[in-house]
Amino acid sequence: MTDTKKPKLGRSWQAEEVTIEEIRALTEGFADAAPLFEDDMVDGAVYDIVVVDGDLHVDGDLDTFKHGLMGLVVRGSLRVEGLYEDTDDPACGVFVLGDMTARRVITTGTLGVAGSLTATEALVGFYNDYGATIGKDVVTPLFHPENHHFDIRGSLEAKAVVGHGAEYRVPAALKARVQALVPKKLREVLVDEVLRGEEDDEIELDDTKLRQRVAKGLPVLR
Predict the structure, then answer these.
(1) Cβ neighbours of residue 218 under 8 Å, at least 6 residues apart?
(2) Fewer CB within 10 Å, N side or C side of the chain?
(3) How far is the C-alpha of 40 from the C-alpha of 11, rounded, in Å?
(4) Residue 19 CB: number of other CB atoms within 10 A?
(5) How far apart are CA 51 and CA 4, in angstroms?
(6) pLDDT digits (tens, 9 = 90+) for 39-73
(7) Using a CB cutoff of 8 Å and minimum separation of 24, what contacts does 156-163 make?
(8) Are strands 56-58 and 48-52 parallel, antiparallel or unpaired?
(9) Which residues contact 1 (CB under 8 A, 6 or more apart)?
């Protein structure tokens, strides 16, 4: 399933350039990694697991599905100049041992970052089967966790947090911070294209439309 038109990212498990034992050892610091790399998950798997020995800089988008990945381990830091997106089907885990920076982040699968995560335009979660673990700080203008849990061990720096129940998608220590960043009037913060309703007291966020605009790189914040 690997797209041969995509540049090689690192050492391939399918090509026997890295063993599953090494992958497990590299990701043992992430509690959510172990279930993804159990024997029953990897035996006969169609998708690949890749290990990058050092930093990874992607000049464009990084879509784990298009790269045919069920796992990506970056032993250094990860920088994506465009959209970073992972998947829950197929189940995918991306683990960064350093810091991660991307213009836009949409995470549906498992994302683990030992350092800080910076999304310069938006950080969006989707679906609740998996979650994200960030060892240090999260920095982004717009944080939309939806129903995806973010275990943020450091601080959260954002201009706005949107989405119903967002304060329950982060650790208890960050609940007050999230509540303080939830805008009282969505129309003052977000573009009309991601909202539904006419009157101010009826305005609601359309999660799907917000996610679609983030994926396309279209403005979401006013």
Answers:
(1) 193
(2) C
(3) 22
(4) 12
(5) 17
(6) 999 998 999 999 999 999 999 999 999 999 999 99
(7) 156/181, 158/123, 159/221, 160/189, 160/221, 162/186, 162/189, 162/190, 162/205, 162/210, 163/205, 163/207
(8) unpaired
(9) 46, 47, 48, 68
